[in-house]
Design a protein that fits this description.
Blueprint (H helix, E strand, L loop, with lengths): L2 E5 L5 H10 L3 E5 L3 H9 L3 E2 L3 H7 L2 E4 L4 H9 L4 H4 L5 E4 L5 H12 L4 E4 L2 E2 L2 H6 L2 E6 L2 H14 E8 L3 H29 L4 H8 L7 H12 L8 H18 L4 H15 L10 H18 L11
Helix pairs in contact: 9-11, 9-12, 9-13, 9-14, 12-13
């Protein structure tokens, strides 16, 4: 049994922390909103009033937070982890944030004798619940080996990627691929709908061949049903791609697909889909094509097939 802290009990943090409890670890939790904390306390966790208090009670502290500024505040803020962390402790950030943020925090925690790992994850909320996440870890190798048994409570694939920041850079590579295949899946199904095909049949056929992808086969059925319940929210993909493009700008890497999807996520947020699942990109494409169809009809051109409903 280890003394573990967990800060950030959202869509991913809550099931991840439950996995640690289920494996018998002593857990202290903190979250901005109270209901997730109460749920974990009912399962045997202890509530803390601040990140500092979590750190004082824990040998290992996990973070799962929305953005870089949140991680900076939780770790280095007035009642942050740095104020309570003990020498020899390990802080593990599972958020997706800027690699430069992680390097800055790692250096600050090293001054007080603590280790810091950036360990973002890939996988859905179902993967978090079932303990099948993939962890991409950057930081000191010795700290990684110490924390590996805890990561194995929550994930099936645990990979050490290199020094501080390497985990985040790997996750950004992952998000570039996710964005591209998500857009391809949504475009393929929106096209099928607009040309009059049965999108369910199209999905069945193309999903079993070279066009198949996780995004198509898992989110495609949700797109067709227009089920936009979040597994991974549009606002979070927008944030991840913002970080991707910031790093790409510094390194001179052209990212045409990621740039396009980033713009689409901005549109979706303006449409009110920020807290919906990323499969809502399909809805944006449907609406754009509907407007184009109406414009053609108004102009007197052959409007083609009617809008899908």
């Amino acid at each position: 049994m280890a003394k573990v802290g967990f800060i950030g009990l959202g869509l991913m943090g809550r099931p991840m922390s439950k996995r640690l409890l289920q494996h018998g670890h002593e857990l202290t939790v903190h979250n901005r909103s109270r209901p997730p904390v109460e749920e974990l306390v009912a399962m045997g966790a202890r509530a803390a009033s601040s990140p500092e208090e979590v750190a004082r009670a824990s040998e290992f502290v996990f973070l799962m937070l929305p953005d870089s500024k949140d991680v900076m505040e939780v770790v280095l803020g007035e009642r942050g982890v740095v104020k309570g962390v003990r020498s020899g402790s390990i802080v593990v950030d599972c958020s997706t944030v800027s690699p430069s943020t992680e390097a800055e925090i790692a250096a600050r925690l090293a001054e007080v004798g603590a280790s810091y790992l950036d360990a973002p994850v890939t996988g859905s909320t179902f993967a978090a619940e079932s303990g099948t996440l993939t962890f991409m870890v950057g930081g000191e190798r010795e700290a990684f080996e110490r924390v590996r048994p805890l990561l194995e409570c929550m994930g099936r694939r645990i990979e050490y990627m290199g020094p501080s920041g390497s985990g985040q850079l790997t996750k950004l590579s992952n998000q570039i691929a996710v964005a591209g295949t998500l857009l391809a899946a949504a475009e393929a199904l929106a096209f099928a709908v607009r040309v009059g095909l049965d999108p369910r049949k199209v999905l069945e056929v193309i999903g079993s061949g070279a066009a198949g992808s996780w995004q198509l086969n898992n989110l495609g059925p949700k797109m067709i049903e227009r089920d936009y319940a979040p597994g991974f929210k549009v606002e979070h993909l927008r944030k991840d791609l913002r970080i991707v493009l910031e790093v790409a700008e510094r390194t001179g890497v052209p990212l045409f697909g990621a740039s396009t999807v980033h713009q689409l996520t901005k549109v979706l947020c303006a449409m009110g889909f920020d807290k919906h699942g990323t499969q809502a990109i399909f809805e944006a494409l449907l609406r754009f094509s509907h407007e184009a169809w109406k414009d053609s009809a108004r102009a007197g051109a052959e409007p083609g097939l009617p809008p899908w409903s």
